Amino acid sequence: MDAIRVTNLKKSFKVGKESVEVLKNISFTVEKGEFVSIMGPSGGGKSTLLYLLGGLDKPTSGSVEINGKDLSKVKEKEMSKLRRNKIGFVFQFYNLVPNLSVEDNIMLPLILDGKKLKDYKGKLDEILDIIGMKAKRKMTPRELSGGQQQRVAIARALIFEPEIIFLDEPIGNLDSKTGAEIMELFRKINKEYGKTLVQVTHSEKSAEYGTSIIRLLDGQIVSKEVLEQEEEAI
Ligand code: ADP
Ligand code: MG
């Protein structure tokens, strides 16, 4: 089964009296375990598309299926559950809570969902290990660099063990060296932990970390290419 199936997706916004069609007729699929980069120019509708895929906004027409489920047919209560348990989001500007510690930021989705934190102690340690932030677990975001803050945001997206993680310009706010480290972390999350990743980006360099690239231009997909994977040294 496809992780994501998008069919004839359209999205328009009303601007004054005019209706502007941002996504014109988009169809594609993402297989489980893929790491797809959706590339396109600024203002080209990438974030709009990502929000539709993650159920944060509704299409004007067409459909998005996640694991075979048509999002337009999912009731609001089930949708919130789906968004919590199956889908993670990472944004350009981390969106951490400034006065909470690293570990409290990571556990915030659990707190909001009424989960018992002690059931997740092992999970938290494991995730802190993956993102390499064990030693900084008691610090607050203002004591961290941008790259470290993004690692915390990634950990927060992982805490419910989502199957799919959506990334909106995840290194757009970072210098190139830190950005490369964060992209390596996403690659590891894709390859070693089997998560399906979909990132939108305007940067060719970060797009190349994925397993395939979809190019979006003028609200339409112009190509999907599968990238050659480097052979792993044994
Ligand atoms: P990208 O992420 O590729 O830079 P966006 O998806 O953010 O592009 O925006 C695409 C276009 O849609 C832009 O022209 C933007 O102004 C417009 N747009 C996005 N969201 C809204 C909205 N909620 N209301 C009106 N216009 C919007
Ligand atoms: Mg955007």
Describe the structure.
This is ABC transporter ATP-binding protein. Keywords: ATP-binding, Nucleotide-binding, Transport. GO terms for molecular function: ATP binding; ATP hydrolysis activity; transmembrane transporter activity. Pfam families: ABC_tran. The structure is a single chain. By secondary structure, the chain is of the alpha/beta class. It has one domain (2-226): P-loop containing nucleotide triphosphate hydrolases (Rossmann fold, 3-Layer(aba) Sandwich). It is built from 7 helices and 10 strands. It has helices at residues 46-53, 76-85, 102-112, 121-131, 146-158, 176-191, 204-207; strands at residues 2-15, 18-31, 35-39, 61-66, 69-70, 87-90, 164-168, 196-201, 212-217, 220-226. Strand 4 (61-66) and strand 5 (69-70) form a beta hairpin. Helix 4 (121-131) packs antiparallel against helix 5 and helix 5 (146-158) packs parallel to helix 6. It is globular and about 50 Å long. The chain starts with a strand and ends in an 8-residue tail after the last strand. The model has no long low-confidence stretch (mean pLDDT 95). Residues 46-47, 168-169 line the site of magnesium ion.
Give me the secondary-structure category.
alpha/beta
Q: How many separate helices?
A: 7
Catalogue the unreliable spans. none
The fraction of residues assigned to DSSP E strands is: 25-35%
Q: What fold name goes in the CATH topology slot?
A: Rossmann fold
**Known CATH architecture:** 3-Layer(aba) Sandwich
In short:
The protein is of the alpha/beta class and 234 residues long.
